[in-house]
Amino acid sequence: MSDVACKQLYLYMELKPKNYIILFILFFAVLIGIQGYQLYNTYQLKQREMLAMVKKNLDNLDESNLIFDHNILSKDIARDYYIKLVKKEITEEGLKKLYQTYAQKTSKELTKYVDSIFQPLGMHVILKQEILGIYYKDAVKPLVNGPITVYTTSGTFHNPTELSTSKWVTEKTETNKIEDRIESKEILYVFSVPRKTSFEVVNLGWILFKELTSLLLSTLLILAAFIWLFYRTITNLRKQDKQITVLHDVVDNISHELKTPVATLKIAAKTLRKSPDDNIITVIERQVSRLEQTLDPLSEHQSATSLSPITADELQAIFSDFQLCNPTVKLIVELGSNLQICLNPTDATTLFYNLMNNAVKYGATALGIRFEEQKNYLSIQFRDNGQGMAESELPYIFEKFYRIQKDNIHDTKGLGLGLFLVKNIIKKYGGEIKVISKLQQGTTFTVLLPR
Questions:
Q1: Which among 124, 160, 278, 344 is least surrounded, fewest beta carbons within 10 Å?
Q2: DSSP strands (E only) in 264-329
Q3: Is 416 within a domain?
Q4: Does residue 305 surpass a pLDDT of 70?
Q5: CATH number at residue 314
Q6: Residue 277: what are its φ and ψ, rounded to 5°?
């Protein structure tokens, strides 16, 4: 594989969820377009087939006018009325009214005839024939303006389709005697009558919908399957991403937690090298035990939350080990009698060490820890004389990887995980943590834990 292809593959694999969604929308739009185009073409084809079938059944209607000729204005009679119109013996409105009368007589019988053809096919077809105009001889302007209905079925037209167009040409010669003379004069009357026959399938939309139901359902199923597959893909990607995030969190937390016992063990080893001391050996044993507890969450069958609450001796050991590692820091602990803390040893060690080390990290030389039992909560106050924090920093100090910086430079070492872990532990036990701090005046953290 070429370098360019590898690079393109790498970029493709590095797509963010947002990009996946954009790509899905594009592909889905293309799929909808293809399916919509297919549906449209099928609809047009079915419509043409349906209209062609209707036309075929109506083609011979003009030749079978005998079924209602006794009610329709015959061609010879119509021509005689045209001649009367030329002679001004009748008016244009009178001729139109005559056609209207005959069309009404025909309507019922014609409707019955058309229905007899198409109702068995589940179709409702309406039909009409109109005269577009009546022209006398070669006149450009019609003698009578159309349209004039020759016959029609019952029903209202909305989108008629042309069935046929034709032009009826008729002529007749009449001999008129000239008054007070023996001679006579022949007059040729020639009429041109363009006609149009139209029809409409009233329930065409419903018929086509039923015809296309299977295709429409299959299209919807394809689109639904496409959406479901994309949803499952995104869900799996998010699940994997969440698992990776959890793994990173575990690694970050454990690496952070290992620092303190490792540092304590180093100091204990140096002290032990100078002079043997049973107390130092106890410290080493405690820190080894803490290392084991830190690694316990990696086991499928062990969890730190299953441990019993921390005892007073275990709590005192935390402060002793801290003092061993920080001999220059003045540590004052005010423990109450019969004190009960709901934290297990692992969580308590993480909480106390992070808050105490955080104070030392930011310049504290004195640290006071006070335990006070309130009505529903146990209050633990950490007060130091360090450099403090600006008020603008306080809303962010519990965020993961957040570290206070000055002039775009981090003054202290660390990953920015300590206070994040403290916040999560307190949240797990249903408590809360508050902080008050001012620059050059120290910081006070107050932890409230349910009793």
A1: 278
A2: none
A3: yes
A4: no
A5: 3.30.565.10
A6: -150, 125
